[in-house]
Amino acid sequence: MILRKPDFYDQFQCIASRCTDTCCVGWEIDIDEASLEAYNKVAGAFGERLRANIEDGHFKLLPHDRCPFLDKDNLCEVYQHLGEEALCNICTEHPRFVEVFGDIMERGLGLCCEEAARLLLEGEGPLAFTSEECDEPEDELDDDDREVRDQVLGQREWMFETLADPSIPFAEKLYKVFGYTGENPFAPFESAEAMIGLLAKLESYGPDWDAALSRIKSRLESSEPIVDQGFFTETESLRLLAYLIYRHYAKCLFVGREQGKLQFALYFWNLARFFTKELAGETSVNPRSPLALTKINAVKILSKQLEYCEEIMEIVEISLDD
Predict the structure, then answer these.
(1) Which pLDDT score is estimated for 20?
(2) Read out DSSP for 50-73?
(3) What pLDDT band is residue 162 in, cutting at 50, 70 and 90?
């Protein structure tokens, strides 16, 4: 089995209480069977509290969807009491994701995590990938399926090479990969209103997204022109576009919508650059520079809203799959 990873994957480490957000709020936290069995054997007062906060195979969330074992400093009490090995699978793996295409496994980090978004955006030069042998079991593919897979991955590799080629001007890269000319900056939509119209049809993941969408709508209703807000450099833009292609494009092997998955990367990037401030919201509480955090927060909230619900991704991809 060949394992592929983006160039920043192995640098990732949860920053815990230094994070301005937390992955322990706003998500249902499912407990795998092995962890559930282990929790049932934990002795003492903490064991009793642990079991009292489990219901139907997941932790019973507190008001505002907060994990019952997230302390006032946003640190995990399960980790503090029982050690890292006691964390359930989802807590250990998040924000990591994995896809398997026959004898090729691809790993990555979800951009809903601000540290993952920081590592992507602050990386130097074009996005690159590493490959190594691993002992994971492969999925069997017949010759026809393997041929189609190789064609899709080959096409995607051409996209990566094009976006990374220093001899090709930025605008030409966008045209070659996405067919984007800039004559209509909101492509694949005809206007900013149409871009946001699709967002408004989607189920919200929570109050933070509701507030962001409200800020975006207010800007559309103002007389201010909708232009690139200038936060993202060309390098950051190209890394983001390549990473979104990496995460989604090859999944057309499973569900189709090849163009929808490709254009999703363009749609995400356009939303991030046209509405950076509105997406990011308040950033002054963070010790990082406001500019860096604004970009990170814009990417993070878009990822949370768009990439973590299969129904939403399907709606968006179908809308873009021309």
Answers:
(1) 82
(2) HHHTEETTEE--BGGGB-TTB-TT
(3) very high
